[in-house]
Design a protein that fits this description.
61% of the residues lie in helices and 0% in strands. The protein is mainly α.
């Protein structure tokens, strides 16, 4: 993870050359670079360091790298095709982990010290309910229908019966 620092616009220096190579070597098989590409990566990084890029401190990481991905040489080919592969994969990591991290954080709020024996089905039900309320109308504006009340009563009855069975054991 420390090697990802080379993606920051301010870290586009020769000292981060090894970091980009380490990242390239860790890519999964479906996007892995060839040996030749890994050998050419340090040279391409040095060319990138020498490139005059006007950095705007308000640009996002995606915007900054998007400008670099669109750079072309005199022939019209991409200037930094190898770096482009590595950076695109690395930038996709943060997007793909965000929702999972958010979910784990929400679960941590549900399962507390005083609720450490909560069943996975209950956690799932709480998450679904919370998601529904967040994506529709606030809880105080929810329309409560008769079938919903019947389902709540049925769930309570099942819960009570299950607890009676465990109390008898």
């Amino acid at each position: 993870m420390a090697d990802l620092r080379c993606l920051a616009p301010t870290n586009r220096t020769v000292s981060y050359e090894r970091a980009i190579v380490r990242l390239a070597k860790k890519l999964p098989p479906d996007v892995r670079l060839t040996t030749r590409e890994i050998d050419n990566l340090p040279l391409e990084w040095k060319y990138l360091v020498l490139e005059k890029i006007i950095a705007n401190k308000y640009d996002s990481l995606q915007t900054h790298w998007g400008k670099i991905f669109q750079m072309r040489d005199e022939v019209g080919d991409k200037k930094f095709p190898i770096i482009s592969k590595v950076v695109k994969f690395c930038l996709s990591l943060s997007d793909s982990n965000a929702s999972a991290e958010r979910t784990f954080s929400q679960i941590a709020h549900i399962i507390r010290k005083d609720r450490n024996r909560i069943l996975p089905d209950t956690v799932n039900a709480v998450m679904v309910t919370k998601s529904h309320i967040e994506n529709t109308v606030p809880c105080y504006k929810q329309v409560i229908q008769k079938d919903l009340l019947d389902n709540v009563k049925n769930a309570y009855q099942l819960y009570s019966n299950r607890n009676k069975d465990t109390d008898l054991k």
